[in-house]
Amino acid sequence: MTKQIILPKIHEVKAELCKRRLFYFLKEFWSVIINNPYEDNFNIEYFCDEIQLVIDKYVFERPPHIQAGKWYPTILDDIKKNLVGNMPPGTTKSTILSRAVPAWVWCIDDSKSIMSNTISASNASGFAKDSLDIIKSDKYRLYFPTVRVRRDVSAKTYYESENGGIRYSVTTNSKSKTGKHVDLITDDDAMDYSTAQSPAEAAECIEGFKALQSRKKDKRKTPYILFMQRLSTKDTAGHALKVLKDDVRHLCLPAEDIYQNINPPELRAYYIDGLLDPKRLSRKVLADQRAGLLDDNKPISDVAYNIQYNQIAQSVDGLLYPELNFVDALPPRRGDEIRLSFTDVADTGADYFATPFFEINAGKMYWFDSIYTQEGSSVTSPLLKRKIQEHGSIINKMETNNQGSVYVTLLQNMGVHVEGYYSSGNKDHRITSFAQFMSKVYIVRANPVTQPQHNQAVKHLQAYPKIGKAEDGHDDIEDAVTEFIRYMYVNYKYLFEIS
Predict the structure, then answer these.
(1) Is the peptide bond before 264 cis (omega within 30 degrees of 0)?
(2) Sign (positive/negative) of CA torsion 164, 167, 173, 175?
(3) What is the 3-state secondary structure (H, E, C) of 291-313?
(4) CATH number at residue 447
């Protein structure tokens, strides 16, 4: 007798695919809450994947759903339980994070509790309603018949499943978060542009972030996922990155590839003609946004545009080095190039040991590598020796102020050709005076895997303010780069006359 094979029904197959991939779930239930047809762009699947990696590991404790290296080589390495993403409006972030994610989590395990936060009360209510519409839809009930919402606990911003799961929708500055502990916290636009411009209101938003962190059911496991535009150097995203330190993964996808701030940098390969989304955020759409044609009758400032669309935490107008030139690689070596290094020695344990490496080639100056670390002399001395030897740097200058003279002697005793120099006068004035010539130096883009210190050094210089100190209080790499420019200006002034 032939054994009958019972095949799963199509909706059962789709239900299983939904559980396996948030991205599939999003597309499957798109029409339930969105009137316009789904229009694909790489960032949508990418956001879904990064979010799911966190939730799979820390909420469901199951293996990654994608293969290693799908978006970038290290995507499955050391998945953090906190995720901060900066992206412009119009990138589907709210539909993914605040609408789809809560319903998707329940289709896998409706005993899980979720807290969804945003700055806007109307958005908090609307997002919760949309998630509930998904859960109550005929398709969802067909796919996941065991997930039911309690009739007696089903409000706009608060509802429960019959299996004990809860969805809270709260706002940044509300007190309704008190006493609630959850398995997952999502934060969607924890601050807006106008709030970020008010120090008092921004401070209240930071307090709201702190309150959210106290709502984790298990501080070792409960994820916190924040998606928002980068609004200032002291916005919620900046504060989260600062306090979460090594326990957070940071994503940054600006609308335009202009300021070298895409993170992870490998995602540049997915931009088309320098645009994140050439359809929904085309150059015309971006120009219309800038002119105020889509939202109001007056143009938004370049500052506001770059903050909201290009994720520049500080206005380029307020940066000391606004015109930096980047290249992908050094030019071919002809045999007559010169390599140099300039080292700013850490004055205290909190300072950075900063050594940028430069090459003069065919009448142009290139900054191609860096040492940038807070490690002590037992690490930095052999590292500097190795780098000088590897790069064949023949001119190596080291500041002798404070502890610098000790380093010079130490390196010379190690057989390293290095000379000391003494920096006199006001450091801030020196850095400011020579900053105008930085546009003559070509910066070789760092390999994020093999050159993490060069990457960090360049990013610090990019964000250095025209007035005042950097947010972290350091100026070590800026001082070392300044000494290179000053040296070149004195000895090879003709290089600065090249157009």
Answers:
(1) yes
(2) negative
(3) HCCCCCCCCCCHHHHHHHHHCCC
(4) 3.30.420.240
Mean confidence (pLDDT) of the chain: 90
Do 256 and 117 fall within a single domain? yes
Q: Provide the token pair at 483.
A: 């000494």
Contact 323, 294 (CB under 8 A): no
**Cα angle vertex 29, ends 28, 34, to 5°?**
125
Determine the 3-state secondary structure of 61 from DSSP: coil
Same domain for 257 and 329, yes or no, is no
182-196, 296-310, 475-489: segment of lowest average pLDDT: 296-310
Domain of 272, in residue numbers: 10-314
DSSP 325: E
One domain for residues 218 and 196: yes
**Number of folded domains in the chain?**
2
388/489 same-domain check: yes
Contact between 297 and 335 under an 8 Å Cβ cutoff? The reply is no
| 161 and 99 housed in the same domain | yes
pLDDT tens, position by position, 381-426? 999 999 999 999 999 999 887 777 888 888 889 998 999 888 776 7
Radius of gyration for the alpha carbons in the chain, expressed in angstroms and rounded: 26
The structure tokens 């936060």 sit at 117
Q: Let me know if residue 42 belongs to a domain.
A: yes
Could you tell me the maximum CA-CA distance found in the chain, to the nearest angstrom? 97
183-229 residue pLDDT tens = 999 999 999 877 887 778 888 999 999 999 999 999 999 999 999 99
HSE, side-chain direction, 13 A CA sphere, residue 52: 25
Q: Please enumerate in sequence order all residues whose Cβ is within 8 A of that of 469, keeping only pairs 6 or more positions apart, or say none.
A: 475
Say how many Å lie between the first and final Cα of the chain, rounded: 87
Collapsing DSSP to helix, strand or coil, 487 comes out as: helix
Within 10 angstroms of residue 350's Cβ, the number of other Cβ atoms is 10
Alpha helices, H only, 70-190: 93-94, 101-108, 121-136, 138-143
Q: How far is CA 6 from the centre of its chain?
A: 48
Q: Which residues have CB under 8 Å from 7's CB, separation 6+?
A: none
* Cα atoms in the Cβ-side hemisphere of radius 13 Å centred on 17: 14
Closest CA to 58 of 211, 281, 222: 222
Find, among 65, 116, 112, 79, the residue nearest to 94 by Cα.
Answer: 116
